[in-house]
Amino acid sequence: MKLRNDSLQRALIGFLLMTAGASIAQGNGGAASGAESADGPSPETLAACATCHGASGEGDRTKAAPSLAGMPAWYLDKQAEAFIHGRRKALKDEGGHGEEMVRLLKTMDRAELAKVARHYASLEPIPIESEQGDAQRGGLLYRGRGACINCHLQSGWGAQRSGAPPITILPDWYFIQQMRAFRQGERVVFGKGHGGGSYREHAHGHSHTEEEILRCMIRAASRFDDDDCRDVAAYLQVLARKQELARKQGSAK
């Protein structure tokens, strides 16, 4: 895969020189240790993604980049397509980092995009952390007014069939930001996107069209303000800690 942006290429060369000899997937329980294997994305691609999302997929709030580690490949793949075809917008408060990512995604072919999705899906999930909010109230909102439980399930892990990703491994700041974007109509472009594709299709094993899924998400987000979202994030942290404990107990057996 060859990147076409000269300035980005120069930045990546510097990044690769600084990180030469380091393992991209170190400390992830052995996942994706062969970063240069035939099944994985190229080192150049991984370096480009790591510039904002981190070498272990941990993300970087200063670059408006959420953690991607452990996010299902089907969801990452779907979001990449949405960005490329103009069906998902970069947000105004991302400081231009979203637009930069879209330009990068457009340099990759379909096979490379799928490899990137599989790579991040193979990494150890990073549980959500939230220092604010009322977890008890957040649980009531999650199960009640927001009806989040209907698609994201009791565990918060979601399901491909409903098009719902795990939300217990998203940073709290990102969760709040994206809920606000849904609520204010800044995240989604309905109809045919730039370059092809539309939300009026059954795809990725979903039981609903993309448009149905997203309109449902917009309705749910409209029932919350930022304070509500902080409470829900606090509740998601409770779920995340339970999941993390279960993973550690499972790996110890």
Notes on the protein architecture:
With 253 residues, the protein is an all-alpha fold. Helix content is 48%, strand content 0%. It is built from 10 helices and no strands. The chain has helices spanning 6-18, 43-53, 73-84, 97-105, 110-121, 135-143, 149-152, 172-183, 210-222, 226-252. α3 (73-84) crosses α5 and α8 (172-183) crosses α10. The longest helix has 27 residues, at 226-252. The termini are far apart.
Topology at a glance:
Elements lengths: L5 H13 L24 H11 L19 H12 L12 H9 L4 H12 L13 H9 L5 H4 L19 H12 L26 H13 L3 H27 L1
Task: Describe the structure concisely for a colleague.
The chain is mostly helical.
**Mean pLDDT, all residues:** 82
**Main beta-sheet annotation:** none
Overall helicity: 40-55%
DSSP summary, beta strand count: 0
Strand pairing plus helix content: what structural class?
Answer: mainly alpha
- Supply the number of helical segments: 10
| Order of H and E elements | HHHHHHHHHH
Descriptors:
253 residues; mainly alpha; 48% helix; globular
